[in-house]
Design a protein that fits this description.
Radius of gyration: 13 Å
Shape: globular
Largest sheet: 2 strands, antiparallel
Strand content: under 5%
Strand order of the largest sheet: 1-2
Number of domains: 1
Distance between the termini: 19 Å
Number of strands: 2
Number of helices: 6
Helix content: 55-70%
Structural class: mainly alpha
Order of helices and strands: EEHHHHHH
Length: about 130
């Protein structure tokens, strides 16, 4: 797992370049993620995507993963879909699926629908 000072390239797998977003030394709590993501998303979608990916990669326990994605499942539709797309394109698909398995059915369903069928259509290579 990356350490707390690791930098993750910004953007999706297709958009990787020299842009980086450093992870803060102090790990944000799951409750801090949504406000920070929304702040980044207002000004720079690539930084918001990188923040979403790096946050998931920094989680070290199943509890952290479940708490984080519980918060993601409760975000507004557009924001939730943006976080899920960033993680899907950033290579964190397995983490999203594992997180869904730790959540209550309602949150897991919302998470998996947004991850597997963001436009209402199931793709063949989402994970």
């Amino acid at each position: 797992m990356p350490g707390p000072k690791t930098t993750i390239p910004a953007g999706s797998a297709q958009k990787l370049n020299t842009n980086t977003v450093p992870l803060a030394v102090k790990q944000p709590t799951p409750q801090d993620f949504a406000p920070a993501f929304l702040t980044f998303a207002k000004t720079d979608h690539l930084k918001a995507d990188a923040f979403a990916v790096s946050t998931v990669r920094s989680l070290t326990t199943h509890d952290q993963l479940a708490l984080h994605f519980d918060q993601v499942a409760r975000m507004d539709d557009a924001d939730r879909l943006a976080v899920l797309a960033a993680n899907r394109e950033g290579g964190n698909g397995i983490s999203v699926i594992h997180a869904a398995s730790f959540l209550p059915a309602a949150q897991a369903q919302v998470l998996m629908q947004g991850f597997m069928a963001p436009n209402g259509e199931v793709g063949s290579s989402r994970a």
